[in-house]
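[agent] plan:
  1. take the single chain provided in the ticket
  2. run structure prediction with default settings
  3. attach structure tokens to the ticket
  4. add a short note for the reviewer (M.T.)
[agent] executing step 1
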Amino acid sequence: MKLCIFSGTFNPVHNAHLAVADFVIEKFGFDKILFIPAYKPPHKDFNPQMSNHRLAMTKLAVKNNPHFQVSDIEFMHEGKSYSYLTILELYKKFNIDGKINFIIGTDAFEKIETWYETDKLKTIVDFIVFPRSFNSVNLDYLKEKGYNFVQAELPFNNISSTDLREKIARQEPVSEFIPCEVEEYIKKNELYGYKKTT
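[agent] step 2 finished; step 3 output follows
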């Protein structure tokens, strides 16, 4: 199986995430895109209840695409969600054709050398790097250091989870940015400061 993973906090998952995954399936012909919400993201505040909400929202967002699947692999242990350890588990779990591919934004990829076991990580995955700003970023120096990657030709989509959370807290409409099932879930569970009107 040709597998590509999309790991992140997905807080919340939005249409730009889905557009990236659609592009990767069409461009590279993977059998499956595996969305992996981080249970306990390094360097971020941790809320176990919110982690479960993020997992549920991601499942709702991808449920109608047969090429997309959500994994709760990082919920199986209570430690921090390190990509290297997760990918080792995936190689044991799936019959992988070639290397696992890893979707990542330019902002995160520029910091890849600070990641847990980065020298081992770069030997077991190939990266697909997406723009995270309107400005192009030169990442050739990482190729010279042994990181194998391609830069995707998808135009930057200026949707951020941070902005969405702020819009939701202000009760502003977000239906053009997130799947309707996810918006309904947020409202039902009053996430991100959303308050139901009586």
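[agent] step 4 note for reviewer: The first helix runs from residue 15 to 28.
[agent] ticket updated
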